[in-house]
Amino acid sequence: MNNKGLRTFLSVGTGIAVIFFGSRPSADGSGGITNALLVLGVLAAVLVWFLTKPNAGKPVS
Known about the structure:
Keywords: Membrane, Transmembrane, Transmembrane helix. The protein is mainly α.
């Protein structure tokens, strides 16, 4: 994957999805965005960013 824009889109989308689905209220009424959830969203976005990084040693076909 060589497109930096696509990598950015996937990373930001992953972070937002983690925060969105993690902040949904539960049956007992608790929920919301916590600091731990924000950290988890950022970590997920960084993980996607590095997993979609192009391999420098592999020629592009």
